[in-house]
Amino acid sequence: MKYSKATNYALHTMLNLALSKSSKPIGVQTLAEKLSVSPTYLSKILTKLVKEGMVSSVSGANGGYSLTRGWESISFLDIIFAIEGKSSLFECGLDHGPQCQIQKVMLKSEEKMEEELRRQTLADLAKTSV
Known about the structure:
By secondary structure, the protein is mainly α. The longest helix is centred in the last third of the chain and has 19 residues. Helix 1 packs across helix 3, helix 1 packs across helix 4 and helix 1 crosses helix 6. Helices cover 55% and strands 6% of the residues. It has six helices and two strands, in the order αααββααα. The protein has a two-stranded antiparallel ribbon with strand order 1-2. Pfam families: Rrf2. InterPro entries: Tscrpt_reg_Rrf2, WH-like_DNA-bd_sf, WH_DNA-bd_sf. One of its GO terms (cellular component) is cytosol. This is Rrf2 family transcriptional regulator.
């Protein structure tokens, strides 16, 4: 199982925003330099996070991105879903339906993983990163 680079960058971007001491929005160029990623690519990721209400954006010369109010409750799973979507990691392609024993095992495992990712919040990570 592998998450996309976009998810990796989204998680790191959210942590960078959480750890920011600035009360002003942080520009995409600054964030991109910290992650060594293209500003254009990071902008696409940030657009998804803005759409999900996790990040706010301000345009203009002093514009940039900042976390929205209540960011402390954002979980890793929220961020992953914002980037990857909410579809299951495994789907039985043999059309066995809900009786497929393999699919049952895979879905149960996925639920356990999602529980852990839901439990881990951005605030928890920010506390341990200081």
